[in-house]
User: Fold these one by one.
Assistant:
Number 1:
Amino acid sequence: MSVIAFIGLGNMGIGMASNLAHAGHEVRALDISKDAIARAVEAGCVGAKNAKDAVESADIVVTMLPAGAHVKMVYGGDDGVFEYAQPGTLMIDSSTIDVADAREVIASAQAKGFDMIDAPVSGGVGGAAAGTLTFMCGGTKAAYDRAKPILDLMGKNIFHAGDAGNGQVAKVCNNMLLGIHMIGTCEAFNLAEKLGLDAQTFYDISSTASGQNWSMTSYCPAPGPVESAPSNKDYQPGFAAAMMLKDLRLAQSAATKAKAATPLGTQAEAIYSLMEAAGKDGLDFSGVMKLINGSL
Ligand code: NAD
């Protein structure tokens, strides 16, 4: 059994940390929120007072933080992970952050002799609690192989996507595509309805024709056809539009640096930013239907 420092016990981190603790590891839980640490202790973790306390005796460090700035500070800042980690410590950052930030932090870790991977996830809060996340990992094969048994305790599908940062690449490219086909699906259902074709009939036809896609068949943004979809619960999340917008912004940042043309990704970001401007980005991302049909 390992000693694992887990830093960032928010909506996602709490479920992931408790799965590690339930598997018998000693999980040393750290967050800037005392309430978050208290919840982790209730879930079987050991509360840590500070980075030194969390990291000093750890074999593995896992982070689940809001954004790149937090990740850079937690690892490389004063009193950070790099300062206190023992030689040989494995570091796993599961936060969704800018590709360039991930590559920078991993390069710093490697320069100090640590194995580190980026391992962003999909599967949401439910997947984190159930231990069924998908992990998209970037880093050396050796670091990935060390991380895999730990990731298996928190996830169901674990992929090695290549070198450092490639986990983030997979994540932002996937979510850019998701944002684009969600908006396209909303447009199609809205147009069908305006032309006199009801959502269920259009669904029955299109879901077996070439317009079929995940946004339609698993998460239909028009109320009715997919019972479990947020559209049948007033678009309560699920996966909030604010989180989709975060990922679309990361995709645009990466596309700008790579000089990659992403005209539809750019549009998707602009459309989700209208939900933010309207103060409606707490709705599920399929709630972009309300923007498209004029009911936001
Ligand atoms: P969250 O805001 O609920 O949790 C982040 C936690 O980090 C908070 O408890 C916060 O107090 C803590 N934190 C911030 N700065 C810190 C610091 N310096 N030291 C220690 N703790 C610190 O966010 P979340 O929903 O758990 O998401 C975490 C990451 O996972 C994000 O990068 C997000 O994009 C990604 N993600 C989230 C979801 C989701 O459905 N929520 C799905 C996939 C990926």
Number 2:
Amino acid sequence: MCGITGYIGPRNGIELAIDQLHRLEYRGYDSAGIAFPQNGGLRVIKSEGKIARLESLLEGEKTAAFTAVAHTRWATHGKPSHDNAHPHTDCTGRVAVVHNGIIENYLELRHALQERGHAFSSETDTEVIAHLIEEQLEQDLVEAVKKVLPQLRGSYAIAVLSTVDREKIVVARKDSPLIIGLGEGENFVASDIPAVMRYTRRVIVLEDGEMAVVTRDRVQVMRADGTPVQRDPMEVTWDESSAEKGGYPHFMLKEIHEEPRTLRDTLRGRISQDGLVAFSDLSLYPDELRGFRRILITACGTALHAGMVGKLFFERLLRRPVDIWFASEFRYGDPIIDESTLAIIISQSGETADTLAALRACKEHGATTLGIVNVVGSSIAREAHHVLYTYAGPEICVASTKAYITQLAVLYLLGIYLAQLEGRLSNEEARAMVHEVQSLSDRVEQVLKGEEQIIHLAKQLAPSTCFFYLGRGYDYAVSLEAALKLKEISYIHAEAYPAGEMKHGPLALVEPGVTVVAFATQPSTFEKMVSNMKEVKAREGFVLAVAPEGHEDILRHVADELIVLPPVHPTFAPVVSIVPMQLLAYYIARERGCEIDQPRNLAKSVTVE
Ligand code: M6R
């Protein structure tokens, strides 16, 4: 997720594009840049770091420009650096492009362009767009962009500036947001509405497969093939601060609602045409992967809980022991690691001190390390031998939600991939599993439609002072994450237990006023979970059951309330069953008037041991 902006009109476009950029900083902040026409060419200024750094570079620029495009980056392809910052230019310096999204076939395009003599100056997927436009630029800019769009696979929102047609910004979108703010004799381009709200409330939202030609006085919207589209502007009525959160009151809720899209982004480019896992971004060769005798997973907090699902999945699929370690405990235990160990290090931020220390210890013991990381170019991403990014985009709320879902998706793909390599899954079986993983974004979307029920439940449960989350197998792993979500943002004491353990002690705590959330997504343990619910009911605890559709008749007899999930394969149920729990934690915290995005005593990135 990056932010793009643009301005064309009578005012100083540099200042306006930068001001808009500031309002998009929540979309990414590892590097920033701007392009504008100057002395018959294009001037591009960019830098690693936040927008403020770019501004300090611009202070020396005495010039004004009436047109500009700018970008704040959240790295996906290529580490955060000056060279990888946008805008990207072609060989001749006549084209500048800012881009948000992922061009899946960029390697293919890049090789072909290099063979045709183009020289690249970044590692990004975006730069191919500038060179492809360069090749078509004997015609006008709009025609050139039209010819290039069909060659791009993946997602994009782009804004293009060119010396050939300096009175225009050409924009296009597919699967990434792009809006145009309409002014009087001036127009604005941005990834998101908050960027333009200070200047105008009249906005055109570009739809997938559309492009637009933006001049000072006119905006022409068309399909990517040039067919004109009639689009009436909408009037924005939100206030600025809620607009930054996409109209949601908190980043947490926004990030939960982003989950279907982030899941799709995580899978993008990792599934081949024939429906099998194909990690073009994994630098570990199949032979190396086949050679590991041990697998070890280490992480903290939510990332560790994702790892627990990964452990169960890998062991079932690969029939090999998988150790899992709290990264914070790593140095005090004596994990068995050697040169035949693949150590998987999971982290959203890539900066968690305990996780980083565990990674370094794994390396010292000769393990091969594979990071599953969200923040590109973070310490863990740089120090691990290999890395798979989760592509969840910036996660602002301290409580991790969308990052967890994408960590699960990467672990599932990795497990299927390893099983394929080791001949433990036939192509047909692997394809069926991949298909299930692909359908998870739709399932999550369905769950989000049930938000009203969760709001109602939250009102009912907010006064509870004690929660237990129970499950077996995958459901226990999800229980841990569900309990963590509730305790960190609502400050209610919450414990997760393997359901069968209750009778060995914790059942003594169950009494009226105690809420027990019971997950029953696994057919093999469904009946046992029903018995556990009955045990709680017998002690007058309140039971909230969470199960896929088809069990309503039984569960309505034993549970006080029931959350019905869409049908989902039991192996992949964690991705779906955690979503109502994230929402429940959110709405309970809201009922209790808690500070949601920045809970007390916690930090987003824990960089101390
Ligand atoms: O950035 P990381 O994934 O390494 O962070 C690990 C934990 O600090 C993090 O998951 C924490 O538990 C979250 N607040 C949970 O919501």
